[in-house]
Design brief:
Layout (H helix, E strand, L loop, with lengths): L1 H23 L6 H48 L24 H32 L4 H25 L3 H12 L2 H7 L2
């Protein structure tokens, strides 16, 4: 029974990706077609989960991503070559003319976003781990949850910090992410 459910999930994933590709190729956006395609993908994930748990969801997702990659490669191979010139817009990556490079400012931004952001995300993960153990979770589950949280928090925090307009806003974001660690350290987690 589980094998049949997994095959149904894989078929639903393939149909969902195909249907989504078809709905996006329509001349006008169809909310119903998009919802139907996403519903098929949700059904595929549920069927994979019922059939084999996380492994089943991974298999269903692999089928969906594999078909999406094939469809994307096919569309790229069949699309005509671009005829327009590339955009000359710049996003202030480098200064114009003989303006200073502001290397120091760029190094500080990198240090705050990447290094301090990672440290803050680890602080938040340690806090979460301590709270999970305090709630009676097993140590393995608490550790896995903390490891799962670090890249997510780091990505969100990096986005927030890169969107901040001032250094003060960046530092406040770091402090807000790091402050929950203080009670965890005081408790001894």
């Amino acid at each position: 029974m589980a094998d049949q459910t997994l095959w149904i999930g894989m078929a639903a994933a393939a149909c969902g990706v195909g249907f989504l590709r078809w709905s996006w190729s329509l001349k006008y956006r169809s909310i119903v077609a998009n919802l139907a395609a996403w519903a098929l993908l949700l059904i595929a994930c549920v069927a994979g989960g019922i059939a084999a748990g996380a492994w089943g969801i991974a298999v269903v997702a692999l089928v969906a991503m594999g078909l999406a990659a094939v469809l994307l490669a096919w569309a790229a191979a069949m699309s005509p070559a671009g005829r327009s010139n590339s955009s000359d817009r710049r996003v202030r990556m480098l200064p114009d003319g003989n303006d200073p490079l502001c290397v120091g400012r760029r190094v500080v931004t990198f240090t705050l976003v990447v290094i301090a952001g990672f440290i803050a995300s680890v602080c938040l993960a340690i806090t979460l781990r301590s709270g999970a153990i305090g709630l009676g979770w097993s140590e393995a589950d608490a550790n896995a949850t903390a490891l799962f949280v670090v890249p997510i928090v780091w990505g969100v925090l990096a986005t927030i910090m890169l969107m901040a307009r001032t250094r003060r806003e960046q530092i406040v974001a770091l402090l807000v992410a790091s402050l929950p660690l203080v009670p965890a350290l005081l408790v001894g987690g």
